[in-house]
Structures are given as structure tokens and as C-alpha cells.
Write a structure and sequence with these properties.
Number of helices: 1
Structural class: little secondary structure
Strand order of the largest sheet: 1-2
Radius of gyration: 28 Å
Helix content: under 10%
Distance between the termini: 63 Å
Order of helices and strands: EEH
């Protein structure tokens, strides 16, 4: 006997979809199911906050315009 803890999806029709580990061969199995009282509520995570570091230009002579990077091709 083996215990697998996973998340299942239950459709409005009452069908259930469960992902099992790949090492379980196909076939018919006896399964015992325990369902929590409340569904999983996925909380929206706040966006990440990154610090801003002013670095300025590397050199005033260096530009990164398209024409300067690709020359006459202008790609």
C-alpha cells in the first residue's frame, strides 16, 4: 500500500481528476479518498519589489540607438 498526497480537480458534474506519480502502472486500483471541508483558495501574491540603483551612462560617447548599433542596415 502506498500513500500519495496530491491535488485533485472536481468538475461541476462531480467528476474528479487526479495526477499520480509516473511510476504507478496503468490499471484498476482500490483508492481511499479524504476530502478537506474547504476548497483550496489561491491567494494573489503581491508583486515583487526591486530596489532601484541609479547607474547613469557608461560613457557620454556611447549611445545605443538603432542606427549606431547596426550601421546602415538600421535593423
Amino acid at each position: 500500500m502506498r500513500t500519495i498526497e496530491t491535488t485533485a480537480i472536481i468538475t461541476p458534474a462531480g467528476a474528479i481528476t487526479v495526477q499520480v506519480p509516473p511510476d504507478i502502472p496503468p490499471g484498476e486500483y482500490r483508492v481511499v479518498m479524504v476530502v478537506d471541508e474547504q476548497p483550496i483558495v489561491k491567494e494573489k501574491r503581491p508583486p515583487l519589489k526591486f530596489s532601484v540603483y541609479p547607474v547613469g551612462l557608461v560613457s557620454k560617447d556611447m549611445t545605443f540607438r538603432r542606427e549606431d548599433l547596426y550601421g546602415e542596415w538600421g535593423r
